[in-house]
Design brief:
Elements lengths: L3 E5 L11 E8 L2 H10 L5 E4 L5 E2 L4 E8 L4 E7 L2 E7 L4 H11 L23 E2 L2 E2 L4 E8 L5 E5 H4 L16 E11 L10 H9 L7 H15 L7 E5 L5 E3 H10 L6 E2 L4 E3 L2 H7 L6 E2 L2 E3 L6 E4 L5 H19 L8 E2 L1
Parallel strand pairs: 2-5, 3-5, 4-20
Antiparallel strand pairs: 1-2, 6-7, 7-12, 8-9, 10-11, 10-12, 13-19, 14-16, 15-16, 17-18, 18-19
Helix pairs in contact: 4-5
Length: 337
Amino acid sequence: MIIQENISLKPYNSFGIEAYANQFADIKSETELIEILKTHRNSNLFVLGGGSNLLLTHDINALVLHINNKGKEVLDERGDEIFVKIQAGENWHEFVLWCIHNDFGGIENLSLIPGNVGTAPIQNIGAYGVELKEVFESCEAIELESLSTKTFTKSDCKFGYRNSFFKTKGKGKYIITNVTFNLRKSNHNLNTSYGAIQHELNKSSINNPTIKDVSDAVIKIRQSKLPDPKKIGNSGSFFKNPVITASQFNQLKRNFPEIPNYEVSTTEIKIPAGWLIEKAGFKGKRFGNYGVHKNQALVLVNYGSANGNDIFNLSKLIQKTIKRIFNIDLEAEVNII
Ligand code: EPU
């Protein structure tokens, strides 16, 4: 196992922020992972997956473990269902494309989400009406304290909106090594109810969509709204969509009758943060080499060599402004280091 010193993390975070790791190890298998954890029990560790939900505001004075184990395996087939076990270091979108190619349905709405398979359960990735938890069967993770492998079922993971056990009680205690998904190999359950998907399918005159058609529609929608991290550094949605009480919503509606909203329960309403940020005047605002994306105000971007702290300070300014105008607390979705 090679441990490199003083490595730039720029290629390893989708924001494209320059920050250095004191030590860095590219982990290619679970065996390598356990070996390095055994020999570095007292070291400061930093676990890095796809780096797509991360804002680095300083160098990492730790041993960075880049989880890069690969492999896809069909475990079982029952009726219409198929169970596949995917290693944590696989790229998420490549996994989606592999599913589409094999006609395994369930994650086509989650096309083009940056990041890796192993980090997808941590924040229960979601898009266009589907969340990871709907296809999640189980995952395996190494417990850092005991170095033993634990299996987590769906209920163990306590999935919520962009949330899970691994972001709350289990934070910093486990490294996910693989994920098993429950997909469908026939009689697909397509989810095209999200407005933009249906619109996109109609535009192409597709009446009986396949999972590939849905994936293609999602890819088109994402490409039209969201910047490609390979071209413009970003971490997708920087904030979560806030959930407010029905009474606060009714008050807001008096001042902003057009405010978009989704009912979460009879007492709670979710508001699109992108709308709040746009209304506050930030959409498309550029501050030198960083700013707010022009097509989706929820996405903060690095146009070149932005400093992580500049983007962090912009996020603080946005939070303060949204609090002042709407009395709503915006919570960052991205991990700020
Ligand atoms: N909106 C605006 N202005 C904007 C952006 C959005 O007014 O600049 C309003 C519009 O009313 C629009 C609504 O917000 O109809 C919803 O926008 P969109 O469909 O783009 O979705 P979102 O709620 O902003 C969420 C996820 C995205 C996911 C999309 C599609 C969160 C934090 N974000 O965004 O996830 O792709 O839905 O399902 O829940 C990510 O997590 O990184 C991510 C990109």
